[in-house]
Amino acid sequence: MITIRPAREGDLDGFLALASQVEHWFGPMVEEPGFHRAVEAHIRDGAALIAESTEPADASADIPAAAPGPAGGLLFGAAPPTYHVHWLVTSEHRRGAGVGRLLMAEAMRRYVRGPGTVEVVTFGPDHPGAVESGARVFYERLGFAPGEPADPGPEGGSRQIYRLDVPDSVRPV
């Protein structure tokens, strides 16, 4: 079972462990003081979520039940009526298992009040991570629609804005 909770001060190392798994797509984060400051600020502001496995290890499972570190993490921002997914990563051992959906559902419940729009900048269609990570399909399945191109990422890869319109009092996901 996966539980989602607000991140705490001691969770920085968990976010760094997740970041280390995706630096090949996003560029350097683990050694970047700016990334550390961003995570710490989101934690302080109550705008960071952690997904944790509450299952004991099961050697017969196809997906490790208790892989070391968090199952996922999310950094969120709100400037109503616009909300922003600043960063969402699922552990490589948990991708495709619903962790990202759980993180987004909890973020929508905690932070979003309609009417409004939730925005995320994700990989552009020509970025190698667009298919391998499943990010574009993930957001589309949650109801996000592709928008205009965004500035390239720190590694130089293309980015695109995705948006989800949120009607009054309705929280999809």
Can you tell me about this structure?
This protein is an alpha+beta fold and 173 residues long. 29% of the residues lie in helices and 29% in strands. It has helices spanning 12-20, 23-26, 33-44, 99-111, 128-132, 135-141; strands spanning 2-6, 48-53, 72-79, 82-90, 116-123, 145-150, 159-166. A seven-stranded mixed β-sheet has the order 1-2-3-4-5-7-6, sandwiched between helices. A hairpin with an 8-residue loop joins strand 6 (145-150) and strand 7. The model has no long low-confidence stretch (mean pLDDT 89).
Question: Quick one: biggest sheet?
Answer: 7 strands, mixed
H/E series? EHHHEEEHEHHEE
E-strand count: 7
Continuous helix count: 6
Low-confidence stretches: none
How much beta, percentage-wise? 25-35%
**Envelope shape:** globular
Average pLDDT reading: 89
If strands are numbered along the chain, what order do they take across the biggest sheet?
1-2-3-4-5-7-6
**What gyration radius follows from the Cα positions, in whole Å?**
16 Å
Helicity, in percent? 25-40%
* End-to-end C-alpha gap: 18 Å
Structure characteristics:
single chain; 173 residues; alpha+beta; 7-stranded mixed sheet; 6 helices; 7 strands; globular
Produce a short descriptive summary.
By secondary structure, this protein is of the alpha+beta class.
SSE blueprint:
Elements: E1 2-6, H1 12-20, H2 23-26, H3 33-44, E2 48-53, E3 72-79, E4 82-90, H4 99-111, E5 116-123, H5 128-132, H6 135-141, E6 145-150, E7 159-166
Parallel strand pairs: 4-5
Antiparallel strand pairs: 1-2, 2-3, 3-4, 5-7, 6-7
